[in-house]
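Quick one:
INPUT:
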């Protein structure tokens, strides 16, 4: 009998991956019209798995590079999806509400989160700045139920379009503020010595490079693909999956090599593709492949987060951490977002949706890992716990209430 039931680590990894793949295939479908989102289910599975089976200690500070690369890939796939969904990316009406969230809500949210990190959690100023930067982007991954229409279809919800457009941009715009925190940690709080260099290079030039490279590579990829397959039957034979990877990897890699922000490059490259409505069928297949890939990696990531929460649940329910997490989710983003939309043509329901559903998620984990691998910040364990708690309560609150919004959008959300 010693020949049978031999347990090897590699085989267990494959078993684990297979179970997650099954979850990723069926869970989003099961919970599609429920008051319960797929990420909540994955978190519960992870927490239960830790207490029932695993009891395996995960120290995220020892696996930051793995966390950074995994979350980076998920965000890239989600940004490409967001770009493909926006049908008129180069018209002002697409951005007139999202621009307020980006220009007003995001910076004030960063300042408020920085203050709360310093005042409530006792973070050093540079660490508080990092918390402010990493918690500022809304998440294109977890907002799936509140994203705009599929590629080629009319953007029939003002609030959904605004959330998708905001999420597509601000995952890249969090980078300059992450660098601001890194500079503060490296060079001190005498900002006059380095703020000019930060503003020129980390803010202006890198943003311009990211957007420019994204637009150029998106246009070139479109011309190459649709010139090669000028006949529809030829286009049908081009692999949607491989093309999706090209649309993600090429803009990102080129932007990063040149020195721009790759997140912005991917979103704008995908936006170039989305503007060609006559190729709706092919845009849909690109989007569908990305969505399936995204579902699989999201399942892995949130089960792991659930395990971490189970392992450190005492830290997650610490009063200070709960306070700052709920303040960010229930007060700061909703209030600042709502105020930024004053004097627009939106009704109260639309303002509520755009301001309240600033979901915190995988982008925050990426910036957390990026900041902590770039340089040492004080109280890294507390920062990890605070970030995880903020994401946990955001996923819980926004996931449970998103279905209510879905049911009321057709009634209260004006169709343009």
């Amino acid at each position: 009998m010693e020949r049978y039931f031999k347990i090897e680590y590699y085989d267990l990894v494959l078993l684990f991956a297979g179970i997650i793949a099954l979850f990723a295939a069926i869970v989003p479908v099961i919970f599609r019209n429920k008051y319960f989102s797929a990420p909540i289910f994955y978190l519960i599975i992870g927490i239960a798995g830790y207490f029932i089976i695993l009891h395996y200690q995960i120290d995220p500070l020892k696996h930051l590079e793995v966390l950074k690369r995994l979350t980076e890939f998920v965000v890239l796939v989600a940004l490409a999806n967001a770009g493909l969904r926006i049908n008129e990316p180069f018209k002002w009406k697409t951005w007139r509400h999202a621009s307020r969230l980006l220009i007003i809500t995001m910076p004030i949210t960063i300042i408020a989160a920085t203050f709360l990190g310093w005042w409530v959690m006792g973070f050093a100023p540079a660490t508080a700045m990092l918390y402010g930067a990493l918690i500022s982007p809304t998440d294109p991954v977890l907002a799936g139920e509140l994203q705009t229409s599929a590629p080629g279809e009319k953007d029939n919800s003002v609030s959904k379009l605004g959330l998708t457009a905001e999420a597509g941009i601000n995952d890249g715009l969090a980078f300059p503020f992450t660098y601001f925190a890194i500079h503060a940690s490296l060079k001190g709080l005498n900002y006059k010595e380095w703020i000019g260099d930060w503003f020129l290079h980390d803010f202006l030039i890198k943003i311009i490079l990211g957007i420019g490279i994204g637009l150029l590579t998106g246009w070139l990829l479109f011309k190459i693909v649709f010139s090669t397959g000028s006949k529809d039957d030829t286009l049908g034979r081009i692999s949607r999956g491989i093309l999706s990877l090209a649309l993600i990897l090429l803009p990102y890699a080129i932007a990063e090599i040149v020195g721009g922000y790759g997140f912005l490059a991917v979103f704008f490259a995908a936006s170039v593709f989305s503007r060609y409505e006559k190729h709706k069928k092919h845009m849909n297949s690109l989007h569908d492949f990305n969505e399936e890939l995204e579902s699989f990696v999201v399942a892995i990531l949130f089960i792991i987060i659930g395990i971490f929460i189970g392992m450190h649940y005492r830290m997650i329910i610490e009063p200070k951490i709960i306070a700052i997490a709920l303040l960010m989710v229930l007060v700061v983003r909703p209030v600042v977002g709502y105020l930024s939309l004053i004097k627009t043509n939106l009704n109260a329901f639309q303002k509520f949706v755009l301001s309240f559903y600033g979901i915190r998620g995988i982008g925050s984990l990426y910036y957390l890992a990026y900041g902590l691998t770039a340089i040492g910040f004080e109280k890294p364990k507390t920062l990890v716990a605070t970030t995880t708690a903020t994401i946990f309560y955001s996923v819980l609150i926004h996931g449970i209430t998103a279905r209510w919004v879905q049911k009321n959008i057709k009634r209260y959300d004006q169709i343009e």
